[in-house]
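As described in the Methods, two query proteins were run sequentially through the folding procedure within a single session, without resetting any intermediate state between them. The first query and its resulting structure tokens are shown here.
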Amino acid sequence: MIGKRITYRTADGVRIPGTWRHAFIRNGPYFLTDLFIYADGLIDCWGLVTIDEFEEKLRSGWVATTLPDGAEASAHGLAHWKFSEPRSRLTPELLVAEVRDTIDQLNERPDSTGRCLSAVDAFLADRTEENRAAARVAFLAIPASRRRYALSDMDSKDWPLRVLVAGPGGRTYLPFDPPVSQEDYDRALTYFEERARWRTDRQAHVSADGPAAPHAPAVHLYHSYPNKPVDDPGQLGLRNDYPAPITVGKVSYASVAHAYWALSVAQPEVGITVATADTVAEARKIASGAPRREGWEQARTAVMTGLLRAKYDQHPELAEILVATDDATLIYDDVDSAFWGDNAGRGRNWAGRLLELVRSELQMRRTTISGL
């Protein structure tokens, strides 16, 4: 179950979504740590490993599901203790099954629960014993720890499922359940018929907007030092330090970055010096050594938005390059700023986010949307 435990790692400029859960690592004593699981199938348990390598760590006991009485354990230096009558619900097989389900969920594809519910739908559409047997196999393939959540119904839990796949006179996987009576089986059928009506109503509901995630692959705008314009800059032209002159008011600047740093300083004469600097690096150096305008930190994103609008209005050829990125996430690196740059996931990526905003405005102009 992923819930709200969402994280990511960056690989080749692309964010790989992931989640985490607790686990015990046995490296001499036992350590309670976080087990990170990523959508590309890699698992970080003190080092990235594949799912097969993770299974080997489970078989060897390095990732521990058995906790012996009296063993020493600690948690990130916060505390240490000895186990006394420990009880663990996990087995190596159960843990790896849960991890495989998590990888499926991160990729938004059917996990063992989804596959089971599809098999149940097939049985309800054609109620043969062969289809019931297939549904039962699919149900038992759900990790035992997750079966009760399969219907997302905390009142009935998995009762309707285990009764349906067992059939009249059959036995469920729970040893304390009595044989399934015809009355209970009919109740289970009624449950699924009502559930099907609810699902139909839900599917008929029209989403209020489009998809949440972009369909175009992410674009990484790596840090660079472009000092001269080129005939075909490609995505290099999307950098704020690319030498695409802009005019703001009555002042011309060699680039968006020149304008940004010139506008940031409190003293007008220093601003002129910044604006006429030979390079962006020199402009930033001069501005960094001068007092900032009052309220600059609060206004800087709005200033940058205006400068980007000016750049792409005044340079249609660069606007075409920006629009061609479609709806891709724009990952902007800036070694000088964790505010503007993504910087391997450690920054806020405001430059990339504002480029996406301006791109959306450019795309809006090409549609029939008006009145804004």
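Immediately afterward, the second query was submitted; its sequence and tokens are:
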Amino acid sequence: MDLNDATAKATVPTTPVFCTIIPPHILDNLAQSDDPARHEPARRTLEHDHARRTRRREIAAEDRTPGEPDAAADKPNRTVYDAGHQENLPGTKVHAESDGPSKDASVNRAHAGLGATFELYLKVYGRKSIDGAGLPLNATVHYGRNYDNAFWDGERMVFGDGDNDLFRDFTIPVDVIGHELTHGVTQYTANLDYQDQAGALNESISDVFGSLIKQYALGQTADQADWLIGADLLGPNVTGTALRSMKAPGTAYDDDVLGKDPQPAAMKGYVRTTDDNGGVHINSGIPNHAFYLVASALGGKAWERAGQVWYDVLTGGELHKNARFADFASLTIAAAQARFGSGDAHQAVVKAWNQVGIGGE
């Protein structure tokens, strides 16, 4: 594994994942509600997301690969569009990189979230934007009407305003923005399949770096972080704290409308299902918890050692598209030893995977 190539480029055509931050099992529960105010937005969102997956496949067929970074690749190039509550992308351009603050808070939050993601990848890992070559970062806000989701479609970030009941504006949590953009990083590096364990790893990697982006922006150490994904997203009528918990998978929410958080923290709770591409948003709790265990054992700034090991594996060229949890575990163990030796970092990674029921060599 070449750990020095922080901007490793994909050598095969990339496959952009259409990932939505609100997983299908939550929307499915909402769609069954007797309350039209709740089931109608959920049903529209589910129908919309199905159509967008078709567009994702069209983008995938274009076989995009990163180019060479230019002189300005170490600075973000952000553009924000306004969909005006329609579903036509990208919408109207309302904010460029050089513009001052907007009167629209959603525009400002999207701009800042794109910047926070760019900054972590550049300053910590030497990566120039999500493709390693200075890719411009585009976002669209005010997408659809009461659209309860946000997504990366292979070209841009798209944010709904939420329904102001169960979900708030999707530009609010910076870790959600970081999560979705990290699907772009995965798209241009390991290009993990969005199915079964490889898909759960795809989701988990986005949660890991989404959390690190939030921690980096807030200057938090591992013990100060909440390890929650989407902590500011849930509305006042939801019994819960976030969409997911890396510290304690399965505890993020327990709500009479959303249902109960189904994520397992270890392989003994692994969910076998044909829904959601083999449960990619559910079983991601297992590698999520492994990362939390590594970061908490090492302490300090989680992006420095735990995050570096995960980044090395993501970009190192040895992570196969259809990797299973055990494959990823073995690679992180090897990467920890290669970069940090046989000391506490290596030992923490070995112990964490054993704790979640996944052995590694």
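Confidence is low (pLDDT under 50) at residues 1-13, 54-63. We note this only descriptively and draw no conclusion about the first query from it.
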